[in-house]
Amino acid sequence: MKIKVLVAKPGLDGHDRGAKVVAMALRDAGMEVIYTGLRQSPESIVKAALQEDVDVVGLSILSGAHMKICSKVLKLMKDSGIGDKPVFVGGIIPPEDAEELKKAGIFEVFGPGTSLKSIAEKIEKTVKK
């Protein structure tokens, strides 16, 4: 069975090249990938995750609003009954914020320069637990 990943671009940030590169790398690693496109709300991301019955949710955030967006997505997922699905975040996130995000329930924070192979491997390992 293929791992199904939702890659989302929340907030007003209009730069999605990184999200598209990660989405293609995950697809090339054998995963099924749904890319939501730009400027998604936390509500639309969780709705898509529910509709598509994904195994993992990935958020690409470069706007600096990662703390607020992630907490909202995690809360909505919990309220929707999918709080057990792992959520990862990619983007420009300070190390101290990355630690706070992990404590809040984000399974991994991938910063610039993270190898695409290691992202795919971490997702596979996490989903297969």
TrEMBL record:
One of its GO terms (molecular function) is metal ion binding. InterPro entries: Acid_CoA_mut_C, Cobalamin-bd, Cobalamin-bd_sf. The keyword Isomerase applies. PANTHER family: COENZYME B12-DEPENDENT MUTASE, METHYLMALONYL-COA MUTASE, MITOCHONDRIAL-RELATED. Residues 2-129 form the B12-binding domain. It comes from Mesotoga prima MesG1.Ag.4.2. Its cofactor is adenosylcob(III)alamin. This is Methylmalonyl-CoA mutase family protein. PROSITE patterns: B12_BINDING. SUPFAM superfamilies: Cobalamin (vitamin B12)-binding domain. Keywords: Cobalamin, Cobalt, Isomerase, Metal-binding. The keyword Metal-binding applies.
